[in-house]
Amino acid sequence: MIEILEKGFFTLPVTSKRHPFASLGVPAGGPMDPVRYLLANRLVGNLDDAPALEATLILPGIRFTERRAFAVVGEVRGIFLRRGGEKHLLPAGQTLFAEAGDELLACSMEQGMRAYLAFSGGIRMDSLRPKPVSKGDCLALSESATPVPKILDRLPLSMPQGEAVLRVTEGVQSDQFSEAGIRTFYNTEYLYTPQSDRMGIRLSGQAVSFAAGYDGNILSEGILMGDVQIPSSGQPILLMADCQTSGGYAKVAHVITADLPVAAQLRPGSKIRFRQVDVFEAQALLHRQVRETGECIRENGLYTSL
Length: 306
Known about the structure:
By secondary structure, the protein is an alpha+beta fold. The chain has two domains: 2-152, no CATH class; 163-290, Cyclophilin. Helix content is 14%, strand content 34%. The chain is built from four helices and 23 strands. The strands form five sheets. It has a seven-stranded mixed barrel. It has a six-stranded antiparallel β-sheet with strand order 8-7-10-5-1-13, with no helix packed on it. Strands 2-3-12-6-9 form a five-stranded antiparallel β-sheet, covered by helices on one side.
């Protein structure tokens, strides 16, 4: 079990096990950045979809009640573990070990929006609709053997530095936009607004115009993380992990799966442009990312000790 001492800004237990329930209207949820989430789990010997903590902007403070392996994947430089009254600096991106009574101290992220904190065995989630953690919460962990210590040699994707070009495939309602509107979408630098959350990133910039007879409203149909909707205001909304399962706005494009982790790490105020690719290039980019993700972890050979 772990006890939450400081909740951070917004810390949420996440798992990718909800995907089969989309047909019932349950949003898929899961990690905003599936690559860093997966790597955190692999560093502690978990299955790829084991429940872990997604921290936004600030890593939470945690007390361990038993010996556990854990790992942090994200741009967090000041990871401190307090043991016996002394603080010890630990690195991100490798298997770490805590003893009963150790405290992981809350700290801010230097870059990016989200970091992932995985524990050997994974968090026990009684509900597929998790709520953010609060100070004083106790989270149960599943049984686990001591994992072989591992380290990240590199990440298969870089952390965006306040701006990004997101690659997209053509949206299913692209014919509902004027030629000028399509040019606007691909030539405009959009601003990531504070009115964004895990459901969607709301963008601000030059409005995308519609073709004659269209206003952005359609009969509701299935939608997915990565869809770029254009409501009647003409301002794009990039749907993310907690998006609803159906929606009634025209979709001008779809951000490719390989670039969703990039979108997840952008902060409000970041600048975003879109570039169109075809489906074959999108598939090739995803295959390369999957391959590189599988190659970036190696056994450490040594246990990280204090």
